[in-house]
Amino acid sequence: MIQRHSPFHRPHHLCSAALAALAASVLAACAGSPPIAQAPASFADPKAEREAVVVAAHPEATRAGIAVIERGGSAIDAAIAVQAMLGLVEPQSSGIGGGAFLLHYDAQSGAVTAYNGREKAPAGAQADMLLGEDGSPLPRSEAMLGGRASGVPGVLAMLEMAHADHGRLPWADAFRETIALAREGYPLTGRTERYVHGDYPQSAAPDVRATFSDASGRLLREGDRFANPAYAETLALIAGGGAGAFYRSERTAGAIVGRTGEGPLAGTMTRADLESYRAEKVEPVCRPYRLYRVCVPPPPSSGVAVLQILGLLEGTDIAARGPGDPQAWFLFAEASRLAYADRDRYVGDPAFVRVPVDAMLDREYLAARRALIGQSAMPAPEAGALTQQARGRDSTREPTGTSHFVIADTDGNIVSMTTTVESYFGSGRAVAGFFLNNQLTDFSFAPVDEEGRPAANAVAGGKRPRSSMSPTIVLDQDGRVVAALGSPGGNAIIAYVAKTIVGMVDWGLSPEKAIALPNLVARGDAFRGEADKFSPAVRAALAARGVTVRPGSGEESGLHAIFADGEGGFAGGADPRRDGTVQRLEATTPR
User: For residue 287, what are the β-bridge partners?
Assistant: First the structure.
C-alpha cells in the first residue's frame, strides 16, 4: 500500500526520555540544542521488516521506486528505477547521459559504501579546451553547448556496480515502469515547461526544441502529453544487455561519439573512451559532528566541504542560538566562506592531484581557521596552506542543476544519490531519447591562474571534474542511520546540505522545518540566497556585520531526505521549493 505524507513526520529527538541511559555529560551537551532522531534499540535488527520510503523529484519517480521494492527489490534496485524514470520525467536535471555519486548503507553489516559514477574527460581532452582562440576562457553559454562539453557518462556503470553488490531483482526489472510510461506518455510538468520555454542557452538548442515539440512543431506546455518512444527503446536495450549495451552499442555509444564530434566546439570522445569507462567503489569520508558521524563521498565530490563547515561550526556557540538569531547565520556564512575557499583551491580528481582531505578536516587546522571569524565579515578568505605544491586559484563556473533522491527499503538499507547532466538539459544535445551532459564545463576553464600555478581542477584526458554533489548519510553512536540527505544546486549544494544538518542537529528542528530554512550561500565576496525569507531584523543585523544577503542563488535547492522517525522506521522529507514527493510502502509484518 502506498501512502503519501506531507508534511512529513517530526522525528523523535535525542534530547528526550530515550536518552535517559546516556551519561550526564552527554545530556548536558545536548540540553541546549536537541539533535536529530535516534532510533530505538530494535532499529538495527536486520530481521525486522520496515516501511520502505522513496523521496524523489517527481511522483512518477517515487512510484517507480516503490513499485520495485513492492516486488521484493532492494534500495539499489529501486535507485535504478528512480534514475531511469527521472531521465524521462525530469530530463532537464539528470539522466543516463550523465553521472552521479551514491552512498549505500547496508543494514545487515552497518557498512557505508560510496560509489563514484562521475563522468570522465575523453583521453583526447586538452588542458586548454575551454579557452578561446585568444587564450581567454570561453563564455559559459558557448562552452556548455559544445561537443567538447560532454564527458563519458558514468551513472549506468555505477548503478550496475552497486547492483552487483546489493541488488536482489534482475537488472531488467528496474526499467519496467519507465519503458511503459515513455511509450504511453505523461503530462509535462510546469517545471520542465519552464526550462523548455525559458531564457537558457539550451532552450534554443535544436535537440531540445525537437524533443519537446508536437507533430505540428509547437513547443509543449504544462499538461501536454509527452511521450519518448526513443528513450523506451534505449532502456529496453539496456535492460536486456546491461550497462555494457549502453557503452558498446551503435545505438548509444556510436550516437554519442557522433553527436559530440559535431561542431561547434567538436569533442574528442571515441568508442574506446566509452568502452573503457569504469565506475569506482570507494571508502566514504566520515567525521564526527556533535553526537553523530557524518559520511560523504570522497573527492572529486565536495562532501569534504560539508564536513569542513560542520567542523568549523562545532567549535562555535551556534547550537545555543537558533534560526532567528542573526549571529547564528553570520557564523554559518563565515564558516561556509572558509570551507569554499579550501574546496575551490584543493578539491579535484584524486587520481590526478593530491587532495589533502585529512589536513582539511584536522581539528587543529579547523581551530586555526575558525579563529579567523571575527565580529564582522572578513575579506574574501584565501585557502589555507595545506600542501607544499602551490595550487592555482580556481576558475570553475558551476551552474545550478541536478537531482537528488533517497531510498530506504524494507530491510533498512539506504541509498542517498545525487545525479546530474550538469546544466539544464546538459549540453542541449540528445541521442536515442536522452540528453548528453555538459559535465566537462565543471573543470576550471583556465588550467593555470594568473601566477602560472596549476589548478587542481584543470582539464586532463581521463580525469573526472570536481563535483559539488554531496550525498550524505548521518549515523548515530551505534552506527545506525538517523538521516540521509542531499540536494541539487551547483556549488550551492554544499551550503544546502550543511544548513539542513545544522537545523536538525543544532537547532532541534523537525525535518520539514530544517529543509525549509532560508538558504544562504556565502562564497568569496558574495552572500546569495533567499533574502526575503529572513526577517527584516535578521537581514539588518547581518548587514551590520557585513553580510548583505542578495537574491541570485539559493532559490533552487531540491533537498530530499529521510529521517529516523523514532518508531523503528523512516519519515521522508521533500523540499517545498521543487516538485519532490515522498511515498511509503507499509511493512507487511509489524516491527
Answer: 294
Instruction: Give the domain ranges of the chain.
Output: 1-57+295-375+480-591
State the DSSP string of 111-157. Answer: -EEEEEE--B--TT--TTTTB-TTSSBPPHHHHTTSGGGPPBP-HHH
User: In degrees rounded to 5, what are phi and psi of residue 156?
Assistant: -70, -40
Enumerate the H helices of 350-492 as residue ranges: 357-360, 363-370
| 271 CB burial (10 A radius; 0-12, 13-18, 19+) | middle
Q: Output the CATH code of domain 1-57+295-375+480-591.
A: 1.10.246.130
What span, in angstroms and rounded, lies between the C-alpha atoms of 522 and 492? 9
CB of 408 closer than 8 Å to CB of 52: yes
Total Cβ atoms within 10 A of residue 239: 20
What is residue 19's DSSP assignment?
A: G
Residues with a catalytic annotation lie at 402
pLDDT in the model for residue 159? 98
16 neighbors 39 (Cβ within 8 angstroms)? no
| Cα–Cα distance measured from residue 4 to residue 15, given in angstroms and rounded to the nearest whole number | 28
CB 197 within 8 A of CB 190: no
Q: What is the pLDDT of residue 16?
A: 31
Query: What are the pLDDT digits (tens) for 255-282?
Result: 999 999 999 999 999 999 999 999 999 9
For residue 104, give the C-alpha cell. Answer: 549505500
**pTM here?**
0.91
511, amino acid identity? P
* β pairing state of 292-296 and 285-289: antiparallel
Give the pairing of strands 403-408 and 52-56.
antiparallel
Q: Of 435, 349, 416, whose CA–CA distance to 101 is shortest?
A: 416
Neighbouring-strand partners of residue 434? 431
Q: Please name the helix (run of DSSP H) or strand (run of DSSP E) that holds residue 527, with its range, or none.
A: strand 526-529
Burial class (CB in 10 A: 0-12, 13-18, 19+), 126: middle
Q: How far apart are CA 355 and CA 346, in angstroms?
A: 6
Would you say residue 372 has pLDDT above 90?
A: yes
